[in-house]
Each structure stands twice: as structure tokens, then as C-alpha cells.
Amino acid sequence: MNCPYRLTPMDKWHQQRGAHMAEVSGWRRVVDYGDPKAEVAAIQSSVGLCDTTPLTKIDVQGRHSARMLEGLGRIPEVGGCAPAASAQASGTPAYIARLTRERFIILGSPEEGTQLCKRLTDAAAGDACVHVTDITSAYAVLQLAGPMSTKLLKKLGSARIDSMTT
Q: Cβ(15)–Cβ(8) under 8 Å?
């Protein structure tokens, strides 16, 4: 790790718990905590948490935001999330999360963040009612996985919980 890289808000926490780290797509990320097979087994039988902060996060909002995003795929209802299959050049799906009637967060791979943001900014150009902002470094993201993940989330609050399989 000789070149500059970004740190997630949990970087120090990971290091204090013995994580093996590597630079991936411009971010210092966890490779494992020592026994990858045990980590996979724990997730498959119970629950695991992954720091996915490096995911590209792009805020799209404005009166015409839904119309602009229609070219990416199905636009979800408020509170929903849908794949945006045509969003990234590699064909790796991005996701459209709808926060309000006029506000969306687009989640994409860290490797394609710059291109995805440019594509959305270009699509919004000339429309004063659509605003595109890269908010990747503004928010941490944690991914919860495993058969006990829904049970854990229900203990934390009463928000609607949908499971999404890929």
C-alpha cells in the first residue's frame, strides 16, 4: 500500500480486530480476519457484516429525476431498490434506491464510480430539475448477510425489511 488510498470510517475498528488489509480500487479494504473459511461458514449459518463503504453512491434528485433514470431500468417505488442493469459499462449491475418521490441513490461498483457519475451527470445536463452529486465519501455502507440477518434487523427497529437475493 504505497500509493494514496481512501479509508472507510471503520478502518481503525477493522485493524484493532486483526483484519488483513489491502488496497482495492483506491480504498484500503478488509481481505479477511485470518480464516476466510470460518468467516464464510459463519455467514452461511448465522449472520455476517461487511464494510462496503467503497461502493459508489450517487445522489440524484429533482422533479425530473425519475424520468432521467428510466433509461437505466425499472424505477422502484419509494423505499424500494431495483437493479439498474444498463448503468455500468462492464455490465455489472448498479442499483437504484428510491428515497422519496424525487430523490434516488444509485449504488455501483467502486471501479466504475467515475464513469457512472459522469454518465448520470451527462444525462442530467441541460435539465435544471435534475441534480447529480457523488456522495461516495459522505456515507458508510454496511452489508448484512446470512440467514439470521432479517431477525437481527427486526431487533433493531420496525422499518420494512425486504430480502433481496442475487
A: no
- Spatial CA neighbour of 111 closest among 26, 32, 51, 52: 26
Closest CA to 120 of 68, 56, 64, 57: 68
Element (H, E) at 66: helix 65-69
Nearest 5°: CA angle at 36, between 47 and 107?
60
CB 22 within 8 A of CB 1: yes
Q: Would you state the torsion angle of the CA atoms of residues 120, 76, 105, 140, taken in this order, to the nearest 10 degrees? A: -140
Model confidence pLDDT, tens digit, residues 46-81: 999 899 999 999 999 999 999 999 888 889 999 999
Question: How far apart, in whole angstroms, are the C-alpha atoms of residue 57 and residue 103?
Answer: 13
Q: Side by side, which strands form the sheet with 27-32?
A: 6-7, 27-32, 20-24
Q: The pTM is what?
A: 0.80
Q: Distance between CA 7 and CA 29 in Å, rounded?
A: 8
Q: Is 104 left (phi over 0), alpha (psi -120 to 50) or beta?
A: beta
Provide the pLDDT confidence category of residue 21 given band limits of 50, 70 and 90: very high
d(CA 133, CA 145): 28
